[in-house]
Amino acid sequence: MSSRMSRRDFAKFVGSTGVTLSVGGLGVLGCAPADRVARARRRVGVMDESAFREFAAGFHGFLLRPSSPEYESARRIWNARFDRHPTLIARCADATDVQRAVDFARGENLLVAVRGGGHSFAGHGVCDGGLVLDLSRMKGLQINKQQRVIRA
């Protein structure tokens, strides 16, 4: 008996693994530490107001909370199947904003979703009760004609 897998069986395996990961994340496979997942779920959406004010004071982009007028349109993604409500949306202006937002989320034990263009089929660009890092406005090109290098 051969130990080789047919193309059809391989495609089924890869497809089912992809669906499992997109629906349940790494926790489904036991790859995420259970205590970290449980701890994150316990405090989702809770953040210290003084820590938030300190974070906001040095932020160059825009911070949107559920009370902000732009919040509803900013939290939506193209796939309407995922109707999630983050505690905070950080529209980052530069790399410093991204670093500060990640540090803030870690300190406040907030779930983090990263949105580039908002086209994640599985809805990974938004989360419930966490922080959405919106990088969609961080666009630009730097062209160095002498070195013939383009940095996006």
How is the main sheet built?
A: 4 strands, mixed
Helix content: 25-40%
Terminal residue distance: 52 Å
Instruction: Give the mean pLDDT.
Output: 77
* Gross morphology: extended
* Radius of gyration, taken over Cα atoms and rounded to an integer in Å: 19 Å
Could you tell me the number of beta strands?
Answer: 6
Main structural class:
alpha/beta
* H and E order: HHHEHEHEEEE
Number of helices: 5
Structural features, described:
With 152 residues, the chain is α/β, with parallel strands linked by helices. It has 5 helices and 6 strands, in the order H-H-H-E-H-E-H-E-E-E-E. It has helices at residues 7-24, 34-42, 49-57, 71-75, 95-108; strands spanning 62-64, 88-91, 112-115, 131-134, 142-144, 149-151. A hairpin with a 4-residue loop joins strand 5 and strand 6. The N and C termini lie far apart (52 Å).
Describe the structure using short key phrases.
two-stranded antiparallel ribbon; single chain; 152 residues; 5 helices; alpha/beta; 14% strand; four-stranded mixed β-sheet
Topology:
Layout lengths: L6 H18 L9 H9 L6 H9 L4 E3 L6 H5 L12 E4 L3 H14 L3 E4 L15 E4 L7 E3 L4 E3 L1
Parallel strand pairs: 2-4, 3-4
Antiparallel strand pairs: 1-2, 5-6
Outline of this structure?
By secondary structure, this protein is α/β, with parallel strands linked by helices. The protein has five helices and six strands. The chain is extended, with a radius of gyration of 19 Å.
